[in-house]
Amino acid sequence: MDELRRQNYLQMMGITQWRLRQVDSHQPAEQAVAEVGTEIEITQQSSVVSDQIHTPDPVVAEDRADWLTLREQVKNCRQCGLRAGCSQTVFGVGNVQADLLVIGEAPGADEDRQGEPFVGRAGQLLNAMLLAMGFKREAVFIANIVKCRPPNNRDPSAEEALACQDYLLRQIALIQPTLILSVGRISAQNLLKTDIAVGKLRGRVHSFGEAQIPLVVTYHPAYLLRSPEQKSKAWQDLQLALSVLGPVNKALGQS
Ligand code: URA
Fold first, then answer.
1. Ligand 1 pocket, 117 CB below 6 A?
2. Per-residue pLDDT tens for 38-60?
């Protein structure tokens, strides 16, 4: 990705005071981020970022059938009370062979209306975050902890998250992502089965499930809209995620 375009994407994220410099691609992303006074200097591993979209391999017929079955089961689900209060289920969207799987919390009003995750203001910021990483939205898969909108946008309860868990686990098993990006407290705490705060979970690579999928936690874009001063930390997290994804160049369509 050229420097001008990255600066534009960072600007879309609301990050204008960051400047990029090239570094040794073996340097861990965390070490590569330095804060200098009010200016935050971001180092970037240029080798892992590309404009190109990953062209998925053909989805095997078996997987396609599994996806269709799963989608139908989610659509007809009544395992918790949320379905009664929402207008439709929000299954998830994107590349079913993505290397990067983003997991949020729950659909909000816009998502409930459109049947797609992250389409409101938080979604626009998420898109900008993905672009700053080198991913178009359609190159990744985006899902939530729960598939139905909780009333008045309240947090989903532990019981509701548990009722929906199997659907998400099956999505993860089908996608087999290289990395999970967990955005926000509800996502991180449910995935990692902890009550530790996001601020303490971010900044390192966790491991998810039996398959030990690398998982990076960052702030929820809705929180970043309310607390833009935290965007620098989110960008550090995205760079950490890129450092894990880096060796898998197919993720970014690199030749
Ligand atoms: N916030 C989320 O966590 N998920 C969405 O789909 C929308 C907003």
1. yes
2. 223 333 333 233 444 444 567 78
